[in-house]
Structure formats: C-alpha cells, structure tokens
Design goal:
By secondary structure, this protein is α+β, with helices and mostly antiparallel strands. The protein has 22 helices and 47 strands. The longest helix is centred in the last third of the chain and has 23 residues. The chain is globular. The two termini are about 40 Å apart.
C-alpha cells in the first residue's frame, strides 16, 4: 500500500509529509486579518498580496505553481559553480545528489526541510504571516552542517518582486515595469511604482513593496541585486541565475529604474563546523507608506524577534481552532476537523479569491459567503457577529435583490464583481436562515427591529430595468420622495426578500430561476427557467417568519406602506395564488411603487394578521410543490429549463436527478418521511459513486444543456456538473439529520471526511475542499461555504448542541458506529452564552440513535436532571448562566 501524502503528528492539527514535493499543485494558505494573504507550495512557489491590485510576488494559478520560474528561493554557493537551491527550485546539476525532503505544517505555518549529502548541508525554511497584523510574510531560514567536515558557503536570498496589479500580469506587463522606482537600502530593496496604471485615469501610487533580510546576528546583506536583469543576465534565468552560479557581485553603477525588480540579497560568506547551524530572516511585505517599512522590519530582524512572533502566531490560530474541538478515538478526524473549523475564518480573509485554485476572483466576498460563513462564527461569539449581520442587510434592495459583492469596509457594497446586471434567485433565502440561527444562539429577537437603509444603484426591478439617470450623487442608499434616506427594520428587509420571490414566478408557478440559483452554472434559463428546489426553501422561510412573529410578542409591526401590496390577503381583494398572471401583475405594481423612491410612510400591521398572510403563502407553496413535483421515480424534480421543460426524471433511456432538487424539499419539511426514505434510496442509486464513495451533484445528463446552464458544458464529474460538490452534500446531510434520519446523514457526512483524508486520491492537505472531481481529487481547497455547514451540522445536528431562542438544547443524533472504539464516550468542546463548555456523551449500552434517550444530565458534577427519558434536553439560559462559570464547564449526558 502506498504511503499517505501526510500524517498528523500531534493533537493540534500539525501534519508531516515526505512526499509533498511530488504533488506540484499543492498549496498552503498563510494570512492574517490585515488582510495580508499568501500561498506557498512545497518548493515555495506561490504569491503574496493584500488585494487584487497589490501583488508582491507574481500571481499564480494551480497550473503556474509548477510552470512558473518565479518563486521564493534561497541559494547556497559552495564554489566551483556548485549552487544548491534550499527550496528545490533549480535546474538539475549533475554534481548534486537528490535532496532528502520533508514538510511540516500547522495552523497557520509552513516548514520545509531539504538536505543534500553532497554539500553536507540541511536547510529548514519556516514561513508564516504574523497574526499580530503586520503586512508581511516571514521566512526563517536555518542552515545546518550535517557532514563531518567544515562547510564554507555563500548564501543568497532570491525573490523576484512583481509589485503591481494582477491585471498587469499580461496586460501592459512591460509598460508597468517602466513605472518601477527601486530603492536599495541597507537591508534590502523597496519598490514603489510611480503610478497606478489605469487607462481610464492614471493615478499616483503610494504603495511600496519590499523584501528585507538579516542574518542570525541581525547583519544586513553584503550585496544586493535589485533587478532580475542583473541577477540573471541574458544568458540565465531564475532557476540558474548567473549571479549565483558565477558568484558575481552587483554593478552598483548600472541603471536600475524601470526594470523588473529583484530582491537578490547576498549575505556574508559563512563557515559552519559539523552540526553547526546559522539563521537568516527574510521579510517580504507591502506598506501603504514607505516610511513604515523600517519599523516593520525592525519587529522581525533577529531570530529571537521572529521566533517570538512565530510562537504568538501559532498560539493565535490554535486558539481559533480550539473554539469547537472534538475528542474521540479517531484522532485523524479530530485533527482534520481543526482545519475545517478555521476555514470560515480563511474565507472571511481571502473571500473566494487569492489562492491558486481561485483564479477567477478579484476579492471581496459574495453574498452567500457572508451569510453562510457567519453560521460558524455565531457559535464562538454571537455578540461579535451581530454588527456583521446588521451591516450585511444593508446590501438588500427594495426589489428583494441585493449587491453581490461586499468589500472589507463596513457598508462597502458592489453590485457585481464584473459590472454585469445579474440576479441570483436564491440570494434572498440565506439571510433569514443566518439571522434565525443568531436569534436562537443569542436569544436576541429584538435585533430584527434595528433600522437600516436599502441598497440602491442603477439596477431596478430585479435587473429587468436600468435607471440611466442614476448617478453617484444620488448615493447608494434608497431614498424617499422627500429625498431622505429611507430606513426599514431588518425584519422588513427579510419580508421584502421573501415576499417578492413568492410572486416572482415562472410558467409553472414556481419561483423564476433568473440568472441562476445556488448553482451558478444554471445561468441560461433567465426567461422561463424555474427553481423548484429554492421554491421549497422560500416556503420554509415563510414558515420561519411566522414563528418569529409569534416570538416577537408585538401586537403591531411597522412596515413601509408599499408592502401592503404584497400582503394581499390583508386587503379586500386577495389574489388567487394559482393565477400566474395575477402574481406577476401584483409584483409589477409593487416594483412600480418602489423602484425609484418610496413614500417614506410606515403603517402598522397587526402581527397576527401578518402571520396569517405569510402562513397562507407558505401553505400554498408547500402544497403546490407536493402536488406537482413529486416524480414517479421516487424523488422531486428541482428545475424547469428555458424551454419550460422539466429537468429531472426520465429522459429517453436515462433517469436525470440532481442533489439540490432533493435537499430543500427535505430541509423544508415538504418531503414526507416516506418520501425522504425514497429520496435517499434513489440518491444512492443514481448519485452515489460506488468507487469513490461520495454523492454527486447530479447524474450524467449526457449532453450539453444550453437551455439550462453552462454547468453541463463542463466535463461530467467536474465542478457544477456532477462533481462531489461538498457544499450541497453537507447540506444534504444536515437535511437528513434535521428530519431524524441520523444513519443516512452520517453516511453522507462521513463520505466527505473519508474522501478528504484519502490523500492518495484527494491529493490535498487536510481541509474540506469545495469539491472532489471525477477521480476524487480535492479541488478549490480552503475557501468554501461547505466548512460552515459542516460545523453547523456536526454541532447542532450530530451532537445536537444548539440554542433555541437563547436556551440551551441538547438533542444528540449520534450513531452506534460513532461510539465504536471510543470507550462508549464522545465529547466536544464548544461555547454557549459566552461560557466555555465541554459536553460528554456516555452510551454505556452502545445503543443506536432511535434506541436511546437522555436519562440523566450532570453539570459540573451536579445532577440537574435524572429519571427521565428525553429525546432532547433543554436548559433555560438564566439557569445555564447560574450553573456555569467563565472558566471551564462540563455537561455530561447519559444515554440509555
């Protein structure tokens, strides 16, 4: 049997690999919340950036990780033109033997070790980005003499500096190099381009890029090569640079301005005795002011300073990964989950961009990302998430659509990454789920009454119209007819999102697909396409709104007067919901009233009446899906294409099925218990891969679907066309668990874990990637909403620990298999109501889910409930706070 790509070597997520250098597409994230972002490969390829327009190293994709010559390098020259790359990036030299390689990495640091017996040296290079917030990446280089003789060598750090926007990788690459202004300093180089190159209007640039270095005694380099031209010459390249091979020194008289920059930092010749070691520190960073660089470098310019920062960085990420921590006999799963638990934080920093797989990104987080990443963050600190949630709602338009990209700054919204007017029909569904979860965890229902503006730009009526007269002078907040910014409650924003969609129907009276739903690849059915799947989700949302209104315990709810149009059952002329044209006409009436400005008037709606209206809509939508979309094959149809044709079911000799089409009817409660059983049997039949073990996103439709979406033009098994798309798979598991199908849910969620750690197939470091392709290879590592849903599913459904309007509820759905080899005990560390919490489940009789109940509960050694037979146990928030302290707390759940 082949060795795995990596193995965990401790209980804190640290792993070791002796084969990572054989996998050329591997990459590892380094970052802090500045944000400062890096990617690093086993041979230190990768890039460094603060955003789309500020790359210190040349931007990379998965392919260029192995194809590009540009990398972080550290050369050792030992004479007679014998040069050794401590990173492994060099042209083959017959005189050198093959290196012995190993890699260790943890949360979030990366260390490679190379040893070459021919020259008798070992190099250990540790890379990290300080968690303290400095915009720099640190390389700690330690060279050790492993021979029995003295070794003399000349070291040179070699880092080519890109210093511009990703746009300039192929667009005006040479012209933008002419803007480079390079300054040699005592410790390295600073590159400050003269302009930000933009043909719509060039602007003066103030951002500087730098690479500084020092040896173990804080001595600076003795020579500096500031340009690639001088470092390599015409006759060589970055993998065999003339400056190193010929041991030349720089010509300080040559012109260095307007050229491709290079940080070639030559240090003093060093002699090491046997077993002796010496260190070097390389700091590569970006500064908004050149004057800040010296002080920044001064924080890391000695081994002691760098090691101190390294220790604090490790401590920071360990703390983040410990907020939800498992303890079972499957230590691989426990360690792997540590990596999953920090993925929502990584996506908060990177967005869906800036790692080699995510070559399409320009930065910022998408609308769905905002809400789904918050799910896991709410577990740790609901109070800190509350301002984020309130801010996110500011991206909602009065037509129920929203800005699709949210920037780093509060209130910074962008209509669309590519300035295209597009509307995704599922976007209105997600905010309520996250807000509802926050309410449960915190008990704070009143936050829905906070008032904020609506987003406004040129797009009107869900992108069907464009306001040619809209300018920046109007602002990005919707106004009243009296020219004031209108503010409505969060509850009003949620109502707008969900009511608009109820009336926004296609030819079969399901909600229009518009430019796509969750599956961005379903983008070619904008006129007649419908998403039955997310119609089920909106029905679910309408029921949630009813529950919230009941919980608010308010007689009157104040809303913009225009909303009474869509609350039609409260009028004297309610419409027939089976009438498609009636729905469309009513929606257009609402659009006409609000699209440019609103009246600004608010009216009181009786809460009970409002609840009754929403319930009628939810019941109608639920019944409509049940009556029209359950197929004889034993599952739901999820879509209609642009030719108004049903997508799923029998097509010739084939049976077509999508996972998405099943998830939301299950989650929403539209599917009955017997239907859930039938759906699961059919997903195993049509979507589960017998060899790889996971559940595919859809069956093979065999041909392109130009009336549905681009996804089906991808090769089958890739991305949105039949890959093992983890986001929907984990939502499938969540849906099954939420309906009491624990065995089935475990089968799904366990398949994701098994595929991830089957490293000979997945070929990735520990994480939950966005998807696995047809061969089972993990793709798009680290930045995926599936991580938040995995955490949510594990904690609230599998272990069953969650809030219910602020009270603690524990409803375990653990299977016998999960207790196997665990001494009948499973435990999880989490937090609730600001208190750290260890919850231990004891299953002494090894009963399965459905066989056991909760018979006793202890809190910090004290029995607080016994003699019962509970499926779930609830503890009022006030009592919980009295029983638990701010230090450590233990709740024991006895199952029998």
């Amino acid at each position: 049997m082949k060795k795995p790509l990596w193995n965990f070597i401790d209980e804190t997520g640290t792993f070791r690999s002796e084969a990572a250098d054989k996998f050329k597409s591997l990459y590892f994230p380094l970052c802090n919340s500045a944000p400062f972002m890096s990617s690093v490969s086993p041979d230190l390829h990768g890039d460094i950036k603060t955003g789309f327009n500020n790359f210190l190293l040349e931007p990379v994709t998965r392919l260029s990780l192995s194809n590009s010559r540009s990398s972080r390098n550290f050369w050792i020259y030992t004479g007679d033109k014998l040069a050794w790359s401590a990173t492994g990036v060099s042209k083959d030299l017959p005189a050198l033997k093959k290196d012995k390689f190993s890699l260790e990495a943890g949360l979030l640091w990366h260390k490679i070790t190379r040893e070459n017996k021919k020259i008798g040296l070992k190099a250990q290079i540790t890379s990290f980005v300080p968690a303290s917030g400095e915009t720099a990446e640190i390389m700690l280089v330690e060279i050790t003499n492993t021979s029995s003789r003295e070794v003399k060598f000349i070291p040179t750090a070699a880092i080519p500096v890109f210093a511009r926007s990703l746009n300039n990788l192929h667009d005006h690459r040479h012209v933008t190099s002419l803007l480079n202004r390079i300054v040699k300093t005592r410790s390295g180089i600073i590159v400050t381009p003269a302009l930000l190159f933009d043909e719509t209007g060039h602007r003066k640039n103030f951002t500087s890029y730098f690479v500084f270095g020092a040896d173990g005694n804080s001595n600076p380099p003795v020579h500096i090569f500031p340009t690639q031209e001088e470092f390599c010459s015409e006759a060589s390249d970055l993998e065999a640079p003339k400056a190193v091979l010929d041991n030349t020194i720089p010509d300080n008289k040559s012109n260095i301005q307007g050229k491709e920059a290079m940080a070639g930092l030559r240090f003093k010749e060093k002699t090491l005795r046997p077993k002796g070691s010496y260190s070097y520190i390389i700091v590569a960073g970006i500064a908004d002011k050149k004057e800040k660089i010296a002080a920044l470098f001064g924080k890391f310019n000695s081994p002691e300073k760098a090691e101190k920062s390294f220790s604090s960085t490790k401590e920071f990420w360990q703390k983040k990964s410990s907020s939800i921590r498992l303890s079972s006999r499957d230590t691989v799963f426990d360690n792997w989950f540590r990596w999953v638990s920090v993925q929502p934080l990584l996506r908060k920093i990177f967005g869906c961009s800036f790692l080699p797989d995510f070559d399409y990104g320009r930065g910022g987080r998408g609308w769905r990302d905002l809400w789904q990443d918050c799910l896991s963050l709410i577990f740790v600190s609901p109070g800190e998430v509350k301002p984020l949630l309130i801010n996110n709602f500011r991206g909602v338009r009065v037509d129920g659509s929203n800005a699709t990209i949210i920037g780093q700054k509060s209130g910074e919204f962008i209509a669309d990454r590519n300035s295209i007017s597009r509307v995704w029909m599922d976007h209105g569904a997600w905010p309520l789920l996250t807000a509802y979860f926050y309410m449960h965890q915190s008990g704070d229902t009143g936050f829905l009454l906070e008032e904020i503006p609506y987003f406004r730009d040129h797009q009107l009526c869900r992108g069907r119209e464009s306001d040619a007269g809209w300018t920046a002078d109007y602002g990005k907040e919707h106004k009243t007819i009296s020219d004031r910014v209108y503010k409505g409650t969060l509850l009003e924003h949620i109502l707008v999102q969900n009511l608009v969609q109820f009336f926004n129907v296609g030819p079969h009276n399901h909600i229009r697909l518009e430019n796509a739903d969750w599956n961005d690849g379903l983008d070619l059915a904008g006129q007649n396409g419908e998403s039955v799947a997310f119609s089920a989700m909106y029905a679910h949302n309408l029921n949630i709104l009813c529950a919230i209104l009941e919980r608010l315990e308010r007689k009157d709810i104040y809303l913009m007067e225009e909303l009474k149009i869509m609350l039609d059952t409260l009028s004297s002329h309610p419409i027939n919901y089976s009438g498609i044209e009636q729905k469309r006409k009513l929606l257009n009436k609402y659009f006409d009233r609000v699209k440019n400005r609103v009246s600004g008037k608010k009216i009181a709606f009786n809460a009970a009446d409002l609840q009754a209206d929403l319930k009628k809509k939810a019941d109608w939508l639920t019944g409509h899906i049940r009556e029209t979309e359950w197929l004889t094959q034993g599952f739901f149809n999820g879509y209609y294409d642009n030719d108004k044709q049903r997508v799923e079911g029998t097509a010739g000799a084939e049976v077509r099925m999508t996972l998405t089409g099943q998830v939301f009817p299950i989650m929403s409660g539209i599917a009955t218990g017997s239907q859930v059983k039938s759906i699961f049997a059919n997903t195993k039949r049509y979507l589960k891969d017998r060899k790889i073990g996971g559940f595919r996103l859809n069956s093979d439709f065999k041909k392109e679907q130009l009336k549905l979406g681009r996804a089906f033009s991808f090769a089958y098994g890739e991305k949105e066309n039949g890959a093992f798309f983890n986001h929907m798979a984990v939502m499938f598991a969540y849906s099954l668990y939420s309906r009491g199908f624990a065995k089935e849910g475990f089968e799904v969620i366990n398949s994701l874990y098994r595929m991830s750690v089957n490293t000979q197939v997945s070929k990735i470091y520990p994480c939950l990637p966005e998807y696995f392709n047809s061969e089972g290879r993990g793709m798009y590592s680290y930045l995926t909403g599936s991580a938040s849903w995995f955490i949510l599913t594990l904690l609230t459904q599998v272990f069953g620990i969650r809030g219910e309007y602020g009270d603690l509820t524990i409803e375990p759905k653990l299977t016998r298999e999960q207790f196997k080899d665990n001494k009948n005990l499973l435990s999880i560390n989490t937090a609730f109501a600001g208190r750290p919490l260890l919850v231990v489940f004891s299953n002494r009789k090894m009963l399965d889910y459905g066989e056991y109940s909760i018979s006793q509960v202890r809190c910090n050694g004290r029995v607080i409930a016994t003699g019962g037979s509970w499926k779930k146990f609830s503890l009022a928030r006030g009592k919980f706070l009295r029983l638990c302290n701010a230090g450590s707390n233990k709740i024991e759940i006895i199952l029998s």
